[in-house]
Design goal:
153 residues; alpha+beta; Aminopeptidase; six-stranded mixed sheet; 4 helices; 32% helix; 33% strand; globular; binds coenzyme A
């Protein structure tokens, strides 16, 4: 949770609220959240990934992802996000995806680079979570770049 946009949850109600927001987002088309699981253990939650801040008029959205700690380092986030990006640029017909990460979140940066995202900017003191102020590195990926062969191998 060190680089997340909210503090860790402390009650089950917060999980229920998240589920409700995820459901509402999908109903309104403002955001889509998916769970990540493995073929070997399809009922085990490894993490989540999402498209949010969807702007259909501008055909853009933000991406987000997170895994439970035991599942870090296996390439799962990249694999899951490859499916999300394919869906975003395919069925959803988006043109641009954005990501906002903590400058110290090197694992997340590697995921984005593997997907073909490029760094586009740096915003100072953009976040304040639990009293900790942090900067943002902004990344972007265009559909024409994805089509040009930026997919991870
Ligand atoms: C960011 C995150 C989703 C990466 O997912 P992942 O499936 O572990 O990513 P990968 O297995 O592809 O690893 C990506 C890179 O991070 C490195 N890495 C993975 N886990 C790491 C760890 N615990 N510490 C340091 N580096 C780590 C990997 O070695 C890899 O680097 P490489 O490409 O140079 O080999 C995962 O670390 C996570 O859930 N973190 C907490 C939530 C979070 O920060 N989400 C993103 C918010 S923007």
């Amino acid at each position: 949770m060190r680089y997340w946009s909210t503090p860790p949850w402390t009650s089950l109600t917060q999980a229920h609220d998240w589920l409700e927001r995820a459901w509402q987002g999908a109903q309104t088309g403002q955001s889509y959240s998916w769970v990540i699981s493995s073929r070997e253990a399809p009922d085990t939650l490894l993490g989540t990934c999402a498209l949010f801040a969807i702007q259909p008029g501008c055909r853009r959205a933000e991406v987000g992802y997170g895994l439970a700690r035991p599942h870090w380092g296996h390439g799962y986030a990249t694999e899951a996000m490859q499916a999300v990006v394919t869906h975003a640029f395919g069925a959803m017909d988006l043109r641009r995806l954005e990501a906002d990460i903590d400058p110290d979140n090197h694992a997340s940066q590697r995921v984005l680079e593997r997907l073909g995202f490029v760094e586009e900017g740096y915003l100072r003191e953009r976040w304040e979570v639990d009293g900790i102020v942090s900067d943002s590195r902004l990344f972007g990926l265009l559909r024409r770049e994805w089509r040009a062969g930026s997919q991870p191998t």
